[in-house]
Amino acid sequence: MSNLMKLAIVFLVILVGVSNSIYVISEVERAVKFRFGEMIEVDIAPGLHFKMPFVHKVRRFDARILTVDAEPASFFTIEKKRLIVDSYAKWKIANVETYYKATGGVERVAENRLAKRVNDGLRNQFGTRTLHEVVSGERDLLMKNITRELNSSVRDELGIEIVDIRVKRIDLPSEVSSQVFRRMTAERDKEAQELRSTGKEKAERIRASADRERTIELANAYRDSEELRGEGDAKAASVYADAYQQDPEFYAFMRSLNAYKSAFSSKSDILLVEPDSDFFKYLNSQDVK
Questions:
Q1: Which residues, at least 6 apart from 176, have a Cβ–Cβ distance to it below 8 Å?
Q2: Most buried residue, 4, 37, 145, 237, by CB count within 10 Å?
Q3: What is the tally of structural domains in the chain?
Q4: Which domain holds residue 78?
Q5: pTM of structure
Q6: Same domain, yes or no: 36 and 88
Q7: Exposed, middle or buried by CB within 10 Å (0-12, 13-18, 19+), for 31?
Q8: How many Cα atoms sit within 13 Å of 141 on the Cβ side?
Q9: What DSSP designation does 81 have?
Q10: Measured distance CA(97)–CA(226) in Å, rounded
Q11: pLDDT tens digits for 24-35?
């Protein structure tokens, strides 16, 4: 073997040894160092570090905020009403040594154990509240209480910190949902019937009031018209009386002419009267030439 080949082999061995001796921990990682399986350094700071090849081993863990999506679970309220709750939790590693000892550094194990804790906490909180408080009134307070209570235990037992817990959805069981929907439909139908009845009652009142006002207006109009007609007839009678008093003979003559006009308005009319009757008084009094 040539000297050049030997130098290349030595350089390669040195390069492999150096590469196995240097490792980097990023800002989003937490790490621990082992020596033949024994943990000798925990929570290694981010940056460049050295280790002995084949002697030391480094385990890295994700230090970012992670999400555990729990399976929907069944809870009972203080009213013994069953609910299907779908929730999730945000968490991160708080103590890497405790985290490794509790979960073996397996993220899935940590998520399973945390999901169980979250469901237990939700079950306890739901069991002390009514359906209204859980759905709307005290949901934020409920989440804060669960987060605080769980953090007091999971920090020491699992080495993790719960950042937040949220409920994505709250559903009624399928066998209860249909009953609730039917009851809601019946209540809405009842409310609609009450509104229709109230509307009809108001409509009848308005219609009756309008009819009454119409009758009153017509009566008042008829009264006013009769008063005006009476005043007109009185004025006409007064005018006729005044005219008659001024020249009674002329007035009688005009009345006779109007009677002639009405009597002889149609050629088919036949009138049988005596020639010397009062009806022809003014005709008989005229000289025939």
A1: 81, 82
A2: 145
A3: 2
A4: 66-178
A5: 0.54
A6: no
A7: buried
A8: 9
A9: -
A10: 111
A11: 888 888 888 888
- 250 domain residue, yes or no: no
Q: Which residues of 142-193 form beta strands (DSSP E)?
A: 160-171
For residue 59, what are the β-bridge partners?
32
Q: Dihedral, CA atoms, 104, 108, 112, 117, nearest 10 degrees?
A: 70
* Domain assignment of residue 244, yes or no: no
Q: What does the block give as tokens for 172?
A: 């009624």
**Which CATH number belongs to the domain containing residue 157 in this structure?**
3.30.479.30
In terms of Cα–Cα distance, which of 88, 235, 243 is closest to 163?
88
Composition of the chain by helix, strand, coil, percent to 5: 60, 20, 20
Distance CA 165, CA 147 (A): 6
What would the two tokens of residue 209 be?
A: 């009031």
Per-residue pLDDT reduced to its tens digit, 84-112: 888 888 999 988 888 988 888 888 999 89
Answer positive or negative: Cα dihedral of 151, 152, 154, 155.
positive
User: Quick one: DSSP state of residue 46?
Assistant: S
